[in-house]
Amino acid sequence: MSEYDYDVLYLGSGHGAFDGAGPLAATGQKVGVIESDMIGGTCPNYGCNAKITLDAPVVLQRMAERMQGVVSGQIGINWKALVAHKQAVINPLPDAIGGKLTQSGATIIRGHGQFTDAHTIAVDGKSYTAEKIVIATGQRPHRLDIPGTELAHDSRDFMALTELPERIGILGSGYISMEFATMANAAGAAVTVFMRGDTALREFHQPFVKQVMADMTKRGVAFVPNADISALTKKKDGIAIHYGAQQEETVDWVLDATGRIPNADKIGLDAAGVEYTKHGIVVDDHLRTNIPNIYASGDVLAKDQPKLTPTATFESYYLFHLLSGQTTDPINYPAIPTTVYTSPRIAKVGVTPEAAANGNYKLVHNHIPDDWYRQIDEETMGDNILIFDQGHHLVGATEFSEQAEDSINTLLPAVVFHYDQAQMWQLAHIFPSISASAWHKIR
Ligand SMILES: Cc1cc2nc3c(=O)[nH]c(=O)nc-3n(C[C@H](O)[C@H](O)[C@H](O)COP(=O)(O)OP(=O)(O)OC[C@H]3O[C@@H](n4cnc5c(N)ncnc54)[C@H](O)[C@@H]3O)c2cc1C
Ligand SMILES: NC(=O)c1ccc[n+]([C@@H]2O[C@H](COP(=O)([O-])OP(=O)(O)OC[C@H]3O[C@@H](n4cnc5c(N)ncnc54)[C@H](O)[C@@H]3O)[C@@H](O)[C@H]2O)c1
Predict the structure, then answer these.
(1) pLDDT in tens, 302-346
(2) Where does the chain bind FAD (predicted)?
C-alpha cells in the first residue's frame, strides 16, 4: 500500500496532461488530474478548436469569392450566429475529455492547485499527496506593461464576443494577431495590426508571410510597422492606441496579442523547491525538474520547442511511457509541424529554407496554382518549398496555400521517418486528394 494518495498527480488538464494521464490511469496506476478552469485546457476551450470553428466560414467565403462565375453570390458572415455555433461545437469537449479520463480510471479534482511540498498539492484547503507530480499548467496571455493596458482584451475575450466591434486594433503580429485579424476582417471589422518591428510571424518563411500580408492589406487590414505602443486611453468615441511619435488611432476594441507567459507563478514552486525562470519550468531530457519526483509537460516548459498542441501531446505521451516503465530513454522530439490559420495558411515542418541555405540541401520550389488539383477551387496564390538532403530524403517542407496544413501533414511521415526513395515509391495515395497532390511533387 503506497504512502501517497496517488501514484501520479497532474496539475492542469490540457493536452500536456490528459493525452498521457488517461493511458497511464488505464495501466492501473492511481492518477489524479487537478483543474481550476475548463477540463481540456486552452486548446479545446479557448484555442485551437474554438478558433478553427470561427475560421470555417472564412474558408467558405474565400472559396466562393475565387469561384465567382461558377457559383454566384458573396458569402457574408453572421458573427453572432458564428460565435453561437463555435460554442455549440466546443461545449461538449470538456465532458468528453473528462469522461475519457474518468473511464480510464483517473480522478478529476476541481480547483486551483498549489504545492505545499514536493509530494503535496493543496486544492482549496484540501491536501493531495502523490509519489510523482506532473506540472502541466500551460500559459496565460502576456499583457503590455503600458498605461491603460486594462483597456485591452485577450484571445479568449475575442472568441466570446457576441457583437463584432466595428474597429479593432491588434497589438503584436504573431500567430494570434494574424489569425484573428483574418477572421475579424472577413466578418466585416476594420482591423489595424500594430507591429513591434517590421516583420510579422518571424519564425515563418518571410517571402510567404509578405504575400499573405499583401493579400490582407488588399482586403483592408492595415499594418503599422515599428509601432512602439506607449499607452491606451479611453475616449468618448472609443479607445485611443498611442504609438510612435505621438501618433494615435481610435478603435472600438483592442486585442493584446503580444505573446503568452508560463503559469509557473502562484503554484507554490518555491515550497516544492522546483527551479523555474521567466520562460517556464526547467526540465532535463526526461522532462524531470530539479526535484526528482516532479516532472513538467506542455507550454509551461522553458524549452525551445514550439508551444503548440502537437508538442504538448508528444510530451504527455512521452511521460506516459516513462512513468509506466515502458521507456527509460530521453525524450526524442520529432519534427513538430505548425500552421498559421490565416487564409491562405502558412505551414511548415522540419528544416526551413533559411536553415537550408548553407548549400547542403536541394530546394525544390513549386507554384501552387500550377497544380491542376488546386485549380479545381481556383487557388490563385501559393508556393511551396521542399527541402531534400544529399540522399534525396525529404527533411523539410514549407507552404502557403489554402490547404497548406493538410499538404504539410501528409508529408510528415517522410520527414519524421526519413523515408528513402524505395519507401516513397511504395505509397499509392487516394486520388484525387491533397495527399496525392502533395506527394506527386516529391517523387
Ligand atoms: C488562441 C489560441 C489559439 C491556438 N491555436 C493553436 C492551434 O491552432 N494549433 C496548435 O497546435 N496550438 C494552438 N494553440 C496553442 C495550444 O493551445 C497550446 O500549445 C496547448 O493548449 C498547450 O497545452 P498545455 O496542456 O501545455 O496547456 P493548457 O492547454 O493551457 O492547459 C493548462 C491547464 O492548466 C490549468 N491550470 C493552470 N494552473 C493551474 C492550477 N494551479 N491548478 C489547477 N489547474 C491549473 C489551466 O486552467 C489549463 O486548463 C493556441 C493557443 C491559443 C491561446
Ligand atoms: N495556429 C497555431 O498553432 C497557434 C495559433 C495561436 C496561438 N498559438 C500559440 O500561442 C502562442 C501565443 O500566440 P501569440 O500570437 O500571442 O504569440 P506570438 O509569440 O506568436 O506573437 C507575439 C507577437 O507580439 C509581439 N510583441 C511581443 N512583445 C511586444 C511588445 N512589447 N510590444 C509590441 N509587440 C510585442 C511579437 O513581436 C509578436 O509579433 C504562440 O506562440 C503559439 O505558440 C498557436
Answers:
(1) 999 999 999 999 999 999 999 999 999 999 999 999 999 999 999
(2) 51, 113, 299
Q: Which residues are annotated as a binding site?
A: 51, 113, 172-179, 259, 299
Q: Which atom of ligand 2 is nearest to the CA of 341?
A: 1
Tell me the C-alpha distance between 215 and 203, whole Å: 19
Query: Domain check: are 106 and 196 in the same one?
Result: no
Which residue from 153, 260, 301 has its CB within 8 A of the most atoms of ligand 2, so it is best to mutate?
Answer: 260
Separation CA 256–CA 235 (nearest Å): 18
CATH of the domain at 374: 3.30.390.30
Query: Does ligand 2 have an atom closer than 6 angstroms to the CB of 169?
Result: no
Partners of 153 in the β-ladder: 255
Instruction: Identify the residue whose cell numbers are 530521453.
Output: 330
Q: Is 15 in the pocket of ligand 2 (CB under 6 A)?
A: no
Residues 45 and 59 in one domain: yes
**The last residue of a domain, from among 258, 281, 312:** 258
Tens of pLDDT along 130-152? 999 999 999 999 999 999 999 99
Assigned domain for 180 exists = yes
Domain membership of residue 158 (yes or no) is yes
Number of domains in the chain: 3
Provide the whole-model pTM: 0.97
Q: Which of 43, 178, 340 to mutate to test the pocket of ligand 1 (most atoms within 8 A of CB)?
A: 43
Q: State the complex-level ipTM.
A: 0.98
Boundaries of domain holding 207? 149-258
Determine which residue's CA is closest to atom 4 belonging to ligand 2.
175
**Helix boundaries (H) for 324-362:** none
- Examine the domain organization and report whether 377 and 413 are in the same domain: yes
Q: Is the Cβ atom of 260 under 6 angstroms away from ligand 2?
A: yes
Instruction: Report yes or no: 410 and 438 within 8 Å, Cβ to Cβ.
Output: yes
Residue 108 near residue 13 (C-beta atoms within 8 A): yes
Report how far apart, in Å, the C-alpha atoms of 234 and of each of 55, 155, 191 are: 30, 20, 18
Distance 379 CA to ligand 1 centre (A): 33
